[in-house]
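Hey, can you fold this one?
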Amino acid sequence: MIILPAIDIKDKQCVRLVKGDYATAHQVAESPYETAKSFKAANASWIHMVDLDGAKERKPVNQEIFERVAKESGLKVEVGGGIRDMKTIEYYLERGIERVILGSVAVKNPELVKEAVKEFKERIAVGIDAKNGMVATEGWLEKSDVSYLDLGLAMEDAGVKTIIFTDISRDGTLTGVNTEQLGRLNETVSCNIIASGGVSSIKDIEDCLELNLYGCICGKALYTGALNLEESVRKAGVQTC
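Sure. Predicted structure:
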């Protein structure tokens, strides 16, 4: 399983939110570049980055930060937030980003997902963000009538290889991952599943391993010191996927 430490960017700063509420944004690190280097020093091989401003504005806002991290950190970078068209996907993938995450468009424009997967294959991931099992879009500001399992199946049919599943109600709360929903999704689709939201301790890493997930994203727990990244990477084992 791969461990993906997370950096969310808002107003050029490294922040974390609670349950996706922008009003709860608080700075957790001084520099995204130094933070990324510290992740590399802890033996991580990937980093998960989100353009929170981009998600809200529906277009890239902080792309220069992601490009620089990809160039300087030695980490594989996956980026989500505000990616709505092929032009933006191509922009990122041509500038050192390893994997692009499509979120809202998976619900609103599934044809774009199919086109992107056809062109870029495993370099396209889909983020499924759900509250009470129903998918939310537009930076989690809008709720859809699509269940996370139905969207997962649709994305599998579209050829998507990697799904990042977030239980919004747990994100930034340090209350543990939603093993029930993660397990159901992993059993329902053949895609690689990355857990996101609620990671609080090494037990969550162990729980995700037990579910045989592809990856686990760690955010707030790293910044509070509740989770040690180097220990997590060691526990998870394989880091080169």
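The chain has a mean pLDDT of 93. Let me know if you want another pass with a different chain boundary.
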